[in-house]
Amino acid sequence: MDRANTHSPDVTVYRAEWVLPVSAAPIADGAVAVRDGQIIAVGAAGDVRREHPQAAVDDLGQSIIMPGFVNTHCHLEYTTFRGILDDEGFGDWIIDLVEVKASLTPEEYLLSARLGAVESLASGITTIADSTYAGVTPAAVTEAGLRGRLYLEVFGIDDKRLDETMADVDQRVQAARAAAPPLVEIGLAPHAPYTVSSRLYQEIASYCRERGLSVASHVAESREELAYIRSGSGRFAHDFREKVGWERMLVQPYGVSPIKYLQQWGAFDEHFLAVHCVQANSDDIRILKSKNAAVAHCPKSNAKLGCGIAPLRDLMHEGVRVGFGTDSPASSNIMDMFDEMRVALFLHRAVERDVSVLDAQKCIRIATLGGAEALGFDDRVGSLEPGKRADFIAVDVSSSHFAPIDNPYSALVYGANQDDVFFTCVDGDVLYRDRSFTRLDEETIRGESFRVREKLRARVARGVDVGAAESGWWHTAAGDTREATG
Ligand SMILES: [Zn+2]
């Protein structure tokens, strides 16, 4: 401890019934001391208070203080899509999503992303890794005060437009980086192996390596993708291509898995986040490990869309960095990391018929420090340790479904949900307290987002089979949604 500053009045000590540092054992009657957005002490409340006698004390009562959740995959701008494409399998769902997406303006996407940011803070998510198609998420995340890496989505299968696409990418990256506050990093998200050509994957990989940018891509999500990459067949080769106007472009059978395919084009390195990996086989897992790529595991989205369950045990056994992702409300409805942990634990135990595959402590670790490691943010967040940034939440455990707490990990994973979060702090800023926002006008944001939701409902009510006419955005240079929304 830095003795010179032990009497500093600008220190705040947050005390709670439990503190869960994640990187160390739980502390009963614990406290976290924060100065200038940085954690300076974690320990027994009595000790921390003795070390900082002048500090302001913020007693969070009967709660568990833990690191904020790191959501390693979402699309905040699809928050208002919740419930409009439920009960469709992955193939139908993505084909319909292509059509519905084209009906919103960038302003409406911003309203949708703002709702997502509100919901993230209220559910205890402090860091997000978000793929943004309309490019509005950086603004919503900045307003909300969240920490994140925002990957600008790139589509493109026509190599004749490669130069145009990369020029557009460069323009978008420069604009987004110039506007990004210190808590927000910009990366690129080539959408998926069935929407991005191999040459575009290569171009993006070298562009990002030259500039130190991170990359995220959906990969090995569905059986449709597997059939398309392996044998050039299935719904993506036919219905999907027809829908987006690519039916005249040659489909190649590559004869390999989607992960092997991306490896062949040099996509993977330690800055690559492979989203989903449901269809990953043992060779694929070894590729991910050998390239030190990380994985975003989205158990609820994958289950809801009927895609399957990613091989989490094998990924962890191989030592691949893995975090949990909620994916967007278009597929998983609520961005509740408690739900994500619980679904993961139950699914993997049920399928493997083995409780040792995942336990509550491992779930909490994956949802916090594991996610931070997957993003390369573990030097600053993911656990409560002196020197890390003060990203933490408090979960109310005063209600009867928690009592008595013998094991805080179990209480959180088996019993809690996002509504139990009442306090969220990012980089030392308290953004949510007693279930109210300190910066955001929740009522206005919700009201505006409902208007967007009504428009989407009306769009779906007209039928989501109007052909490629509305999918004009797909043909424009990546990210330029203006033509699509006019
Ligand atoms: Zn996604």
Q: Roughly what fraction of the amino acids lie in strands?
A: 15-25%
The CATH superfamily of the largest domain appears as: Metal-dependent hydrolases
- Give a list of the ligands: zinc ion
The name CATH uses for the topology of the largest domain is TIM Barrel
Q: Helical region count? A: 18
Q: Helicity level, as a percent range?
A: 25-40%
Could you say which structural class the secondary elements and strand pairing correspond to? alpha/beta
User: Any low-confidence stretches, pLDDT <50, length ≥5?
Assistant: 1-6, 466-486
Computed Rg = 22 Å
Main sheet specs: 9 strands, mixed
Give the terminus-to-terminus CA distance.
59 Å
Q: Return the average pLDDT rounded to an integer.
A: 92
Q: What would you call the shape?
A: globular
Number of separate structural domains: 2
Q: How many E strands?
A: 17
- What is the CATH architecture term of the largest domain? Alpha-Beta Barrel
CATH class of the largest domain: Alpha Beta
